[in-house]
Amino acid sequence: MTSTDPIGTVETVLGPVDPTALGAVDAHEHLFLRTPALPGDDFHDLDQMAAEAADVRRSGIATIVELTPVGLGRDPRKLAELSRRTGVHVVASTGFHRDAHYPAGHWVYREPVETLVEVLTTDLVDGMDARDWQGPVPDPTPYRAGVVKVGGSYQQISAAEARRFTAGGQAAARTGVAVAVHCEVGTTGHEALDRLADAGLPSDRVMLAHLDRNPDPALHAALATRGAYLLYDTVGRVKYRPESALIALIADLVAAGHGDRILLGTDVGRRGMLRAYGGGPGMDVLGTTFLPRLVGALGQPVVDRIMHDNPARVLTRRGN
Ligand SMILES: [Zn+2]
Asked: Could you tell me the residue ranges of all domains in the chain?
């Protein structure tokens, strides 16, 4: 394995950057995605997604964490080109989603955990695997992943998903990066932390995504007390709840002393939610609409902590 010394930096698709250079971070997005779980809602056009990302940049967000894992149309070369064109830092992920995204017979079910760990570690250290690339790649730049994703099902982590939690936790512990967990409708938070801890990953290296689908302040405070980051990533999705409820949830957690554990994103993982494809609310809804309201409610210092300090801390690669 080739290796620079990435400890203390954040790995982006264009190379390691100093954590202080990230600016405001949208901690959960998808820039190129294709999955059998969302038929007809895939998006993989570079020009359109660069336009969407440019809107995000204009809204004041400087870094996007791209949480599309292995096998879902992740495209390291396009991510790098989008980053070059827009000036947005892109932190790419390796890892695996929940079962719903992999058809029966997919290699993620078949390969032993040791092989899964090797796939992830290669993506994190040497550069992302060619299995998601769109054809032969002349560019020798090793586009490294900077974070690991794993996913569980609603109310339970299946046996197959548990194997991928083990692999993700081991690869992250080995390489010093953080893990983002897809918590379906905000469930399985405690179990996810338990499984990753069993794999050697401390809870303060874990981001629990979609917790705001179950906006329960006491549950979130308990997870934050264990050290986990609460990734609220349904900003703009008012079919789930009004934005005022999300602001109230954040205020509750800040008041309970957990302002250092909150992360924000929009996770607009469908074509129909992207303005570039004629949908809405658009990936820039966080910067254009939500953050001004949050600043009004909680003040700029709290929002700076959530948008700058917390993501910089969790995304920085740690030594062992
Ligand atoms: Zn997502």
From this structure: 10-315
